[in-house]
Amino acid sequence: xTEPKEHVLDWLRDAHAMEQQAEQMLKAQSGRLKHxxxxxxxxDQHLEGTLGQQKIVxxxxxxxxxxxxxxxxxxxxxxxxxxxAGGMTMTDEVVKGAxxxxxxxxxxxxxxxxxxxxxxxxxxxxxxxxxxxxxxQEQAMAQWLLxxxxxISTEYLQRSASGQEAKK
Amino acid sequence: xTEPKEHVLDWLRDAHAMEQQAEQMLKAQSGRLKHxxxxxxxxDQHLEGTLGQQKIVxxxxxxxxxxxxxxxxxxxxxxxxxxxAGGMTMTDEVVKGAxxxxxxxxxxxxxxxxxxxxxxxxxxxxxxxxxxxxxxQEQAMAQWLLxxxxxISTEYLQRSASGQEAKK
Lengths: 168, 168
Prior knowledge:
Two copies of one chain form a homodimer.
Chain A: H1 4-32, H2 37-63, H3 73-86, H4 93-122, H5 125-161
Helix pairs in contact in A: 1-2, 1-3, 1-4, 2-5, 4-5
């Protein structure tokens, strides 16, 4: 038997590890981008949001008596995923990077959706409210990326066809 | 200089590898689930759709003179990701599995969104139409999963708190 509150604490730790990986991935992507200023600006904007989200999640963990130093199961898998997504140097990295950022945002959306339901079930309204503050920021970033993947792809194809540096 | 058509063919190969990994992941998840019949039924339904999608993508690749046997860069990364998602045996695998399936669906959504834009740019209306047939199936599965993540999470917490097998 495991109390729902213990699961909430575990999932918050996963969320904290996730936000740390998001930070790494966004920094790596922003640092490499050269020819896609609009994408770079949106990533930088979301990077700031991500640092705020880390703080919000850490506060929830501390309030519940936990520590952010323990990385849960998901941590290692996320690390590998975000590392691959942030360090991609393939010929079409701008397109794959935008796709992977969108995927990562959706990991965050699903994780906070589960956390909101779990926190509600425990009557932990502070954790619920904290996750509800974060969720719309992830949704906005995911939406922006999905809307811009067509133009990023088309611009990439155009640059690549004309012999310009296209990938970043 | 790379012609847009070559990129479309590369991305179709990535999509084919992705659908093969989706098949593996869905099969593994469905095979393990015991106490979540609604989730299992939806996964099985999407598994059938996935086999149809593989065929559609393979036909596009063949029409463009390519072969599905060559796995592109993304293949290896996807394989590791889907393997991790399908083989998760952690204590909360049903919740993490639903989250990972949702994430994978969004990878498919983003990939077909890029492909539709690229195929349109090349005037390859057959590939564009093929991807437009697949996209709504991925969107429907993603939507279903996101809508059910709260109830799956709550049911998991309830089973776990009452000492029943909860994780699968």
